[in-house]
């Protein structure tokens, strides 16, 4: 099995362990277990091993969580059950939830499925809005990509840092910064540079090439999730991703037929290389952020992303945007566009963790393929574009691809993360996580007492 011998062990020992990406216990990572007062009476090391597959093929057995629906009233009594009360409750809740997955369409009847689709479309609209505001700014010769994004990171820090300080306290927050700040610095750097090089790609290459290169982000996410997060995709999930990409291909083909692909471009080779680099950085940062938000509270992740993003983006703007800044147009209209751009991008960053928790980095990137469709809808109203007959087909294909992807999952979808262990013991019980769903289900069924403090 991959991950136990050979080259994977070398990667695990020499790369993942020093970076802190290897599976560790919650206490080793410094995460606070969220237990009720009744549950804190007895603490012991849970006897659970990490699921090496994550997404099970149809002919594989489901993992044993130490409790079944039939024996739920005696959770923890079995010798194989987790010894920690919270882990036992999570195990029972997961077992009870996954017992509902009797049909291929079981997940479609859950709130999570519709929430992932709805939030994904909101994110697509946010991206479309930021692109529109950037077009307005470029139309008045205000090309300051690093500087205009600086305000987004500053707003993230202003919103989420006070929440983090209130929840964790200054001392604990500083302790996290000293211990894991370098990891958040890497995440912020990947995110900032992904934004920057993607914008540069649109300067030098044409629209068709830049959008085609965005597919590379999905490839990066799938490959990195497979090797580093030990996610195992079923054939239907791969098929769903390919159907979505096919829908995007139809959209790009219609642009090409209409001659709206942006022409020859200023420097196609340079632009394509920038686009490829930007898509790669996006893919890595998306996987890294999914790993973070499954283990840490959202307010902590976004606080550090904002703080380090301001520092990195500020330096970059001072170096590369000075000439553009001097020649840019500055008036009330430009200020309004910058405010709109900042608010939409801040909303985008604040909602992304929900999709990464309830879904995955792959689901997140596939959802964003619909941004081009919404861009055309807005373009018809703002820039006078006409809708080609192939656009609705493209949109339907992308949605169909998403539906196909989810037919292969359980009732928990992608919220159950393989790198968190069978009972998600290394994860945080935050909004959208499988761990919180399991705890709530256990209490709903009377399998565990007390209440759980819910983290964001």
Automatic annotation (TrEMBL):
Protein localization: Membrane
InterPro entries in the record: EmrE-like (IPR037185), SLC35_F1/F2/F6 (IPR009262), SLC35F_Transporter (IPR052221)
One Gene Ontology cellular component annotation held by this UniProt entry: membrane
Superkingdom of this protein's organism: Eukaryota
Disordered: annotated span: 37-86
Protein name, entry field: DUF914-domain-containing protein
Lineage: Eukaryota, Fungi, Dikarya, Ascomycota, Pezizomycotina
Keyword annotations from UniProtKB, A to Z: Membrane, Transmembrane, Transmembrane helix, Transport
Membrane-topology annotation of the record: Multi-pass membrane protein
Compositionally biased tracts (Polar residues): 69-81
Residue intervals passing through the bilayer: 104-130, 150-169, 208-229, 236-253, 273-292, 299-319, 334-356, 363-383, 389-408
One Pfam family matching this protein: SLC35F
MF annotations from Gene Ontology: transmembrane transporter activity
Species the sequence originates in: Parathielavia hyrcaniae
């Amino acid at each position: 099995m991959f991950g136990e011998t050979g080259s994977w062990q070398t990667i695990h020992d020499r790369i993942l362990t020093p970076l802190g990406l290897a599976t560790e216990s919650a206490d080793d990572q410094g995460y606070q277990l969220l237990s009720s007062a009744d549950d804190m009476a007895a603490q012991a090391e849970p006897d659970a091993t990490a699921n090496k597959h994550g997404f099970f093929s149809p002919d594989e057995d489901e993992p044993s969580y130490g409790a079944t629906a039939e024996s739920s009233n005696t959770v923890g009594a079995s010798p194989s059950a987790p010894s920690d009360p919270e882990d036992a409750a999570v195990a029972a809740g997961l077992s009870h939830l996954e017992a509902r997955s009797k049909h291929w369409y079981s997940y479609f009847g859950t709130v999570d499925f519709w929430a992932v689709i709805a939030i994904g479309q909101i994110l697509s609209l946010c991206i479309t809005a930021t692109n529109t505001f950037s077009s307005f700014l470029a139309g008045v010769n205000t090309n300051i990509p690093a500087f205009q994004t600086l305000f987004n990171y500053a707003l993230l820090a202003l919103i989420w840092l006070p929440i983090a300080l209130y929840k964790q306290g200054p001392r604990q927050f500083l302790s996290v910064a000293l211990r894991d700040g370098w990891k958040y610095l890497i995440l912020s750097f990947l995110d900032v540079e992904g934004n920057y090089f993607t914008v540069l790609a649109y300067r030098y290459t044409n629209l068709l090439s830049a959008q085609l290169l965005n597919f590379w982000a999905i490839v990066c996410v799938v490959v990195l999730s497979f090797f580093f997060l030990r996610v195992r995709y079923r054939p239907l999930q791969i098929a769903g991703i390919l159907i979505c990409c096919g829908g995007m291909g139809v959209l790009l083909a219609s642009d090409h037929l209409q001659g709206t692909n942006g022409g020859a471009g200023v420097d196609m080779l340079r632009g394509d290389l920038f686009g490829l680099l930007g898509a790669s950085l996006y893919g890595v940062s998306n996987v890294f952020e999914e790993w973070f938000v499954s283990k840490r509270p959202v307010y902590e992740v976004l606080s550090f992303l904002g703080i380090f993003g301001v520092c990195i983006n500020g330096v970059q703007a001072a170096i590369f945007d000075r000439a553009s800044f001097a020649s840019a147009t500055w008036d009330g209209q430009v200020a309004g566009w910058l405010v709109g751009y900042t608010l939409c991008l801040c909303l985008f960053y604040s909602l992304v963790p929900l999709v990464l928790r309830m879904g995955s980095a792959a689901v997140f990137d596939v959802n964003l393929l619909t941004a081009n469709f919404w861009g055309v809808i807005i373009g018809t109203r703002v820039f006078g574009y006409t809708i080609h007959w192939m656009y609705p087909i493209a949109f339907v294909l992308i949605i169909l691809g998403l539906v196909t992807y989810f037919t292969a999952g359980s009732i928990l979808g992608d919220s159950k993360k393989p790198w968190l262990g069978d009972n998600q013991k290394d994860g945080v019980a935050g909004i959208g996580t499988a761990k919180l769903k399991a705890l709530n289900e256990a209490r709903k069924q009377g399998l565990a007492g007390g209440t759980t403090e819910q983290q964001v």
